Q: What sequence folds into this?
């Protein structure tokens, strides 16, 4: 009853999509090269992608993607184990081993790295061994881990304790007689909870636990802990493991729990590169507390790029669909219905999202450059840029993940009813993306880390001390304090990069000054600093957010100015202007009120910005599809009937639906779901 | 390996929750009565709820809710068929038949009405027969439908056509010889797509199709169409049916597709209460086009109340959890960690959400009163209030569903990592709630319907004509045009209801005037009205949104003022102030810039509003748990380990996890997931 239909060589939607590509103002392929670091890098990406899609059996876009033929939770986990194994085999055969290899990042980003039960083995277990294990420890474990003879995870979070590491309860008590640690979970809240692959996959974990020696607590350290027998995978004595249950997304991953009941491991299992414990129980402190920040910066830079990618994916799907979907009429007697994308509201919702994806993407590369510079400096024991990079990436991670998560959902809503179908690709994208707002530091907490740096920087500015480049604008604090106004006299003025940056810098400076003033007033009144910080948290977070947008706009402007191809440059400039001015004028853009609440911009200037935005939307509209094409997502990567490159959305929805197990089974039973009918519907009908 | 743990009589979390309830400033139970229309109504709700939970086997909150033991899609559908059958049996036994019965609304709202495969039978099929079928038709079908001898759905949306009814392609061609209609789906895009229960449950549908008589198209009409044999449930000849595949949520419902291949039904099957076709093919027009608006208003009023309920549920979960979850420290040397709820950022994120739930809830009742008045008027053929009610409910539906959907996700993020677990209850709540933003009219389209009314009303105001009460404020357009400013001199002034309302009315008036001005300028330049409307859509939508907030604030203020119990009144006043001032001062509140971009509020006034908000947060903090308690959700209704009334969150997370099929099976196999290990993990380990 629910057979699929013949796929047309062409139809109205396919023709409509062809029209969208007829007259781009720039060369889409050349923009792809610009986005991903040149032609060679793009070809490498494509090789990896094609090989993966071939092995995963995802090359036929008329076949329902396996994501949408989900079994129960257990089957989903097994399918994750299988997919992960295939991805690993590609990595092996293409010799992509190093997590910091950009190809590896791509490999995993494209294929749901964290959703793989082996994900943390690659992204956390091996890197931890590399950076925190001593040479002897690496000799014992690193090779085995790289050859997958052991599978590890990283167990830090506990049921009752999240990012606040000092709160962890798990103990590792040193038994000086037997030269062993006794690992123990003293309470229910100390149960390790959330680590990926912990439930039924991993054989080992780096367990973060409080080191206790002769009743003294030395704080949290890492311990290489065998969890399961390498013979039959059974949990070792005293080890209680399981899966934490279903989640919003990530259901192919066995995020797990772990309870340790007086589990003994030898002295040599404590990670010993920096701090170490001697046989007699003497403790040796790490030389520098900031050594592990490097990895954190790297992980966050990647999160920026992943955020851009997720947002670009969502924009690709929604924009392509809006360019073939017709609904209603702008004019009462027009021929045929109007494409969604020709409604101003759709342009106003989608094109700024796309501009954010570009802005964030370029910022990601900008930060990667900072990271590479940091690595060079750290090699020479130069820690000077660590605070600014840490502050910058904290704020960026918080801003980017929030914008991307909200943007994916907005793009989904832009697809109307069909956006609610899993076949749109958007529900899965959203559910798998949103944990980014929480993991690697909750966004509202991270902004405060940026804020601490900004308050310090403002003090330095006032004291006339040198400032890091990214906060050099704070030198202008006096003019801000005197209530400077934008000097823009026309819409044209608002397109000048210096004018744009100045507005963003003014906002950030003002908010940092206001927050600092609130803290200072409290200090004079004798309030404790920490209490005062909590009271003014929102002001501090706003300041951090405003500064983060200065960083992004700077990165975007620099990228536009460095672009040599004139056509690319022209379209990127439009996107950059849209990004900037939308954030200023749109009442729907979070925190846009901050540009006007101190009258920095007058009502007339806001109207100019708004007119510019509407003009930019009209200018960018004809380039919409070529712009999303430039992101170069394959149909398989999008997993979306609506986002198909060729525009054939309706036949795809129909054909994918006909391939679901429910329909396939009913087709064999005369168009009836016999079990549901017999057990339930029949009874209802018969009363 | 993953046995559950003993549930403690008490623990730190349970004690912590008890503390939260020790000193409320008001009586929580009395607020419950106020919320739901008095003690009797509350007791009726509780009776229904208790009976339902008993029959559904949901009374033990230490048992994992069946929602989280999801099988594959087919099993989910079967479980929907079963749950729906139980809900029906409660309705039968408690004699709750009428969809417009408030108890029925409650019954379905509480237990996922639309997710039931029988949902549309009750909410659309029966009401359509009641309102649009002739007496003879009712005699033939209504009794059968009410006794569930037939199960119906409502098939309007098509694969290529959504809310734009005129675009529908399905045809019903009258064959005057045989006195039959021939129903046909001429294209793939004409396939009916989305109707609930259509896939494998329903036996009948009201099919919306273009009536064609002698080559003349009379537009879209409804046809009662048998789909399946009442003997064996097989699709009737020419009828092709199936399930449309997995969705974001609603997976217990077989939202379906339907293709009709020259299917013949008799003349008497065309819905004939208003328009009818005579045997000879003579068509009789309906007397008044607005007759079906009554039901639409009712459905939207219910959506307002459901929005409040969904938002209140999410707030309940996040606030309760934040009151027992401890994380980090405000002060460096404090005893123990700080409750999440004591961080200013958490208060700033959650308490305004809660205030919105109250605001929306009271607005829902306010609209229900308008609806009852409308019914009385319609009985006397008085259509005068229809335009204003239609405009008001359109804007409210758009605003409320947006705020509730965004609010649920924000509440989820406020729960940190555990918010991502399905056991938080929030992922399911979100996924099942979000389609509300799209169905019954896409939000961005609905705001435009409100805008049309506002533009007309402004013209009436300028012409000195009488205005509906809800837009009477437009009479003040002159002062607005002259750039009036808020006269508030102190924070205290900003708590005066008239001052608050005036600010909201000023904003709405200004935006309506600006939008009207843009249209007028275009008109003078000779632009076509519809083109001009599309160009200024965003301005029009903003105007409609601003007006909607006037309606809500008015309803909230009226409810506060009508409250007799002094303690209830005091706490509601605080919530009302928070709702109002947060929307003015917070840069995170959408469109707050509109209060400052014309300098209606000065920077000093915004700072006063902000100080008030922070003061209100501190005042409301001790009442947080009693306030969410007042919404009176049972543990079973929340389906949340984090939102449990007693605060026992961690033991619940652990115990529910131990009950998942994956863990239960592994427990029997020595703590190993034997299938996953043998098929996949072992292979990886062995290389």
A:
């Amino acid at each position: 009853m629910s057979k699929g239909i013949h796929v047309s060589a062409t139809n109205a939607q396919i023709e409509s999509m062809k029209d969208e590509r007829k007259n781009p103002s720039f060369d889409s392929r050349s923009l792809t090269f610009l986005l991903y670091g040149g032609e060679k890098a793009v070809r490498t990406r494509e090789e990896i992608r094609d090989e993966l899609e071939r092995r995963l059996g995802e090359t036929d876009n008329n076949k329902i993607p396996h994501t949408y033929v989900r079994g129960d939770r257990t089957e989903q986990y097994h399918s994750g184990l299988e997919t992960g194994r295939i991805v690993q085999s590609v990595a092996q055969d293409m010799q992509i081993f190093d997590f910091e290899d950009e190809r590896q990042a791509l490999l995993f980003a494209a294929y749901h790295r964290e959703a793989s039960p082996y994900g943390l083995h690659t992204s956390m277990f091996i890197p931890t061994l590399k950076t925190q294990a001593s040479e002897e420890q690496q000799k014992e474990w690193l090779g085995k881990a790289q050859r997958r003879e052991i599978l590890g995870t990283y167990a830090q979070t506990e049921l009752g304790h999240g990012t606040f590491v000092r709160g962890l309860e798990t103990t590792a008590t040193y038994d000086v007689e037997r030269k062993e640690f006794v690992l123990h979970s003293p309470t229910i809240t100390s149960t390790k909870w959330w680590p990926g692959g912990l439930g039924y996959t991993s054989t080992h974990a780096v367990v973060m636990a409080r080191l206790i020696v002769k009743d003294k607590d030395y704080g949290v350290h890492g311990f290489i802990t065998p969890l399961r027998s390498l013979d039959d995978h059974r949990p070792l004595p005293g080890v209680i493991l399981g899966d934490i249950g279903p989640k919003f997304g990530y259901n192919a991953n066995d995020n797990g729990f772990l309870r340790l009941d007086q589990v003994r491991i030898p002295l040599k299992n404590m990670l010993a590169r920096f701090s170490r414990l001697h046989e007699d129980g003497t403790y040796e402190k790490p030389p520098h507390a900031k050594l592990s920040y490097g990895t954190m910066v790297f992980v966050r830079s990647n999160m920026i790029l992943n955020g851009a990618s997720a947002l670009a994916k969502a924009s690709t799907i929604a924009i392509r669909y809006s360019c073939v979907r017709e609904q209603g009429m702008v004019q009462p007697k027009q021929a045929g219905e109007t494409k969604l994308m020709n409604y101003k509201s759709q342009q106003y919702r989608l094109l700024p999202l796309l501009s954010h994806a570009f802005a964030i993407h370029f910022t990601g590369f900008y930060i990667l450059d900072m990271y590479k510079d940091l690595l060079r400096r750290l090699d020479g024991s130069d820690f000077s840029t660590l605070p600014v990079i840490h502050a910058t990436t904290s704020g960026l991670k918080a801003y980017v993940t929030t914008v991307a998560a909200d943007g994916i959902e907005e793009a989904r809503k832009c697809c109307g009813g069909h956006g609610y179908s899993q076949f749109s690709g958007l529900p899965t994208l959203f559910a798998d993306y949103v944990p980014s707002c929480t993991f690697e530091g909750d966004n509202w907490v991270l902004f405060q880390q940026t804020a601490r740096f900004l308050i310090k920087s403002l003090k330095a500015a006032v004291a006339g001390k040198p400032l890091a480049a990214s906060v050099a604008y704070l030198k202008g604090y006096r003019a801000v304090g005197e209530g400077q106004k934008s000097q823009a006299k026309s819409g044209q003025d608002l397109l000048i990069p210096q004018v744009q940056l100045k507005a963003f810098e003014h906002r950030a400076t003002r908010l940092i000054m206001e927050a600092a003033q609130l803290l200072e007033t409290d200090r004079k009144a004798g309030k404790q600093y920490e209490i005062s910080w909590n009271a003014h948290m929102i002001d501090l977070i706003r300041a951090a957010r405003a500064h983060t947008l200065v960083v992004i706009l700077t990165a975007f402007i620099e990228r536009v100015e460095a672009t040599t191809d004139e056509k690319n440059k022209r379209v990127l400039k439009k996107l950059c202007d849209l990004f900037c001015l939308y954030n200023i004028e749109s009442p729907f853009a979070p925190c846009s009120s901050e540009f006007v609440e101190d009258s920095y911009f007058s009502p007339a200037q806001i109207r100019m910005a708004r007119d510019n935005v509407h003009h930019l939307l009209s200018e960018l509209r004809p380039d919409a599809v070529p712009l999303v094409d430039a992101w170069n997502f394959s149909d398989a990567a999008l997993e979306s009937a609506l986002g198909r490159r060729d525009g054939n959305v309706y036949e795809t929805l129909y054909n994918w639906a006909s391939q679901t197990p429910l329909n396939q089974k009913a087709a064999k039973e005369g168009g009836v779901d016999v079990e549901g009918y017999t057990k339930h519907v029949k009874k209802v009908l018969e009363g």
User: Anything to note?
Assistant: Chain B has a mean pLDDT of 93.
